[in-house]
Amino acid sequence: LGLLALALPAALAPLAVAAQDLQRQRAPVIIANRTIIELRGPVAGYSAEERARNSIERIEAALDADPKAEVSYGETEEGTRVRVGGRYAFIVSRIDIDPQTGETTQLVAREAVRRLEQAIAERREQRSPRYMATAAGLAAAATLLYGALVWLLYRVNRWAGLRVAVAAEDRARRLNLRG
């Protein structure tokens, strides 16, 4: 019994490390500064980072081809597949969900689709001429404000330097008079 008590933790340690390793391998899919989904890995030999990077590239390519692309999802054997403009974007597999909290691949995909639709709308807005003009105006205003602050600091520094020099000269003259 004593030997079994010592051997059991040693035998279970690799399983615990493997479970922690799977839990740690996560990578977000980010479109228009918005996290769409956090993919986990490895799946079919792809790490979580590779899955996320490939998903971002596919989504960006689909949106570049058709900025008004529709987002959809559907069930497959592997999980729930998300499409952008009819093109495969990513798949929500069993490794991406937490079944203990009641998540299913379809629920997670539905939430990812909602976030992706919002990100696509924001991406569209960010690329509009009005948004670009507003951003350029704000950048110009910030640059002017920065220039004014630098000029003000220069003037304050110069004024303070003159005040210190006059005070030091006055103090030196008083010390000299007293001998």
Describe the protein's architecture and organization.
The chain is of the alpha+beta class. 63% of the residues lie in helices and 17% in strands. It is built from four helices and five strands. The strands form two sheets. It has a three-stranded antiparallel β-sheet with strand order 3-4-5. It has a two-stranded antiparallel ribbon with strand order 1-2. The radius of gyration is 31 Å and the shape is elongated. The termini are far apart.
Q: Quick gist of this model?
A:
The protein is of the alpha+beta class and 179 residues long. 63% of the residues lie in helices and 17% in strands.
Low-pLDDT segments: none
Average pLDDT across residues? 83
Roughly how many Å is the radius of gyration? 31 Å
End-to-end C-alpha gap: 97 Å
Global geometry: elongated
Number of strands: 5
Estimate the strand proportion.
Answer: 15-25%
The SSE order reads HEEHEEEHH
Structural class: alpha+beta
Figure out the total of helices. Answer: 4
